[in-house]
Structures are given as C-alpha cells and as structure tokens.
C-alpha cells in the first residue's frame, strides 16, 4: 500500500492538547467577522484510527471491510486503506473510489446481491472477484458477465429488532440456499462462503449468534456440494458512538463465542465484516448556524395554573442544514439527533420548548420536533456530534443549499501511529510478546494503544 502524505488527505494537524471541539471553536471564531456562517463539519481522522485499533483489540479474528456507502469521503477511505482495512463496495463508483487510492482488488468485496450487468463486467475487468448474491438470476448474470467470480451467498437474518432492516430486501432462506448452491454448481461457478447483515443499528447481539449458526449450516451444504467454503462475512450493524444502549464490546463478546463454537480458528475459515457506522459516526461533528427564528406566543389558556413565565412561548429555529442535507439521516437512517449549545448557557438561563428546522421551503424539513434550548439569536451556532454515518453520503443540494465543507484533522500522534501501521501492519501475536516491537508512537495518546491479541487476519 502506497504511503500518503498529509497533503494527500487534506487534513490539518491537531496540535498537542487540542481536540476536535477546539477546531470547531476556531472555525466559528474565524467566521464571526463575516456574514459567511455556512454550516461545516470537523472530522477527526484520528477517531477512525482509534476505532480501527479498538476493532483489532476486541474482534481480533475479523478483518474489517469498511462499508463505503456509509461515508464515502476520500479522506476516510484513504485512512482505512492506509490501515490495511478491506472495503465493501456497493457499486462501480465505490469500486472506482477505493481503487483510485491504490487498494488491491483482493481487498474489495462487491457486497450488493443485486447488481447491474455492466457493473459486474466492470468488477471483472478490474480484478474484483468477491461478490455477494442471493438469487438464481444473479448467478446467471455473474456466469455470463464475470470471468472469475468468487461468490458469497448472502443469507437472511432475523433483523426485526434492528433500527434499519435489510433482510426485507436481501438474503436467501436456509431452504433456498441449497437450491442456489446447486444452481451455482450447475453453472460452474465458485462459491467461497456466506455473508449476512443483522440490520444496521443492531439492538440484539443474539441475532449475530443465530446468523453465524445459520451460516454454519450453509457452509456444510456448500461443502457437501463440493465447494471449498473458506469465507464468512458477518456484515455490519455495530454502533458508531457511545450513546447507544448496546455497546460494541457486548456485541463483540457474543460474536467471539459464536465464532469459537461454529467456526473455530482451526476450521481455517477467514472471517470478515462490513462495518460502516462503527468507523465514522463519532468522527464527525456538524456545526450549523441559526439563520432565522420565530417566537410563537401561546394562546391564553384561561387556566389558573401557576406559570413561571417559561411556558408562554415556543421558539422555532431555522438552521442552514436540514433533512435534505446532512440530516437526511433522520429520514433514511431513523436517526434522532440532539443539538448541543455552542455558547455555554448561564447557570440560571431560562430554557424554552423549541423546534429546529432546516433551510428548505419544505414542511418535512424538521430536524428536532421538541427540545429545550435558551433564547438564541440569528448568527448563533448549534453543534451536532456523531454525525459521520449516513449523513454526507446521502445528502442533496435541494433548494440550492450547498453541502457543508468538511475540515479534516488528525493529531500528530495518530498520524505517526497510522504511518507505522501502514509500514509494518498491526503487530502479529509473536511481535506482541516482546514489547520491543510495539510502535512507540501509538501509546502516547489515550486509545491509541495497539491491540495485544492475535489478529493475523489483518494481514491482507
Ligand atoms: C451490505 C451491507 N454491508 C454493510 C453495511 C453497513 O452497515 P452498518 O453501517 O450498520 O455497519 C450495509 C448498510 O446498509 C450494507 O447494506
């Protein structure tokens, strides 16, 4: 993998002792002298690195193939490419993006079970062999359009408790899996494994257990039919921030037990995953500016109830990014977003019932239906944390509102740690046993410690 320079990423070094929030502050201060108060992001690429190290620590057997659809910013793709991750691409454009930063085709899985024929041909011409399927028609298309596909059968999961369900659209049942495997064999295709997705925003870790056990059944069917089944792909579904009930580590613990039971290390099966949200959600903070405001006085109710004066009005704030932009996550990703104040409120500051709206002329463009905020003015800022997943990737410029600029940052310690990993990979079990081989850069910042468990699967 080619080593990139900071200029390739277009990020700014974060000086020691500073954090993403300081950069948000700095950008806001810079804007205070002008009328130009466009919404903007600060994205900490060091946070993506920390996620990668955390992944390697708790899921050491599983190689992450980042789901590009979640956030296709080139800087994110370059960061993960430098760290040795693989990539889950949904389309020709995503394959092009990943290959444009020098990723080898064997680090790509074309994980869309329903592909356009011309895009299957593109994958074939560009050496991308691993791809998912869940139907007979897809098998026939691949047989005609790809020279050497390595097929992965996507099976359905019980994703009824997930925030975003996917098995309503994709995934073969166990019963149809046998028929599909037979058809693949008749067509002379090579099936190498099984994939699934438990739904994005998983709330029940047992779904992974069940899906891994189902995958075992399909592996056995495949082996019976003569396929060399070597790849298990456990999809995505992991949380990307700390504000979810179910924590990443809890899910990982359940997955590790299920893997040990159904795919023990000595089975020789390579395990990969397609995390999207996990890697990027917490790296992005969005700052939006209040462009308009309305005060709605409550009608006199005539009641004798005591009123301390806070209940006489509600405030409507209009900001310069909305559900047709970054907050499309509210519509498409079932997200609930919470504004935080840029200016610290005074201890006794009165809060009002407020709603927050986007800038377009559409009534659907509402970001927050009801929250408590102080009386703010046009020109004040609101911040939204954990805005990296399914936000910038699906935003539009509806009504002519441009997408916010993204300011990338990374600490020097994180940069040096990343360089070390690009050059030497994550340490293998043997290297971990002696502390002498630990890249010393990586321990200087909290959460940049390297994993201490085996993770040989990270050598791609
Ligand atoms: C096939 C596939 N893989 C991975 C992902 C990423 O999922 P998540 O962001 O929940 O990790 C998705 C999301 O839709 C997907 O469709």
UniProtKB/TrEMBL annotation:
Catalytic reaction(s) noted? L-ornithine + H(+) = putrescine + CO2
Q: Which residues form the Orn/DAP/Arg decarboxylase 2 N-terminal domain?
A: 45-281
- The EC number(s) given in the record are 4.1.1.17
Gene3D superfamilies, per the entry: Alanine racemase, Lyase, Ornithine Decarboxylase, Chain A, domain 1
- Which principal EC class is assigned to this enzyme? lyase
Domain Orn/DAP/Arg decarboxylase 2 C-terminal stretches: 40-388
Any one GO molecular-function label of the UniProt entry: ornithine decarboxylase activity
Q: Which family does it belong to?
A: Belongs to the Orn/Lys/Arg decarboxylase class-II family.
Q: What does this protein do?
A: Catalyzes the first and rate-limiting step of polyamine biosynthesis that converts ornithine into putrescine, which is the precursor for the polyamines, spermidine and spermine. Polyamines are essential for cell proliferation and are implicated in cellular processes, ranging from DNA replication to apoptosis.
Name of the protein: ornithine decarboxylase
Q: Which organism is it from?
A: Chanos chanos (Milkfish)
**Recorded name of the encoding gene:** odc1
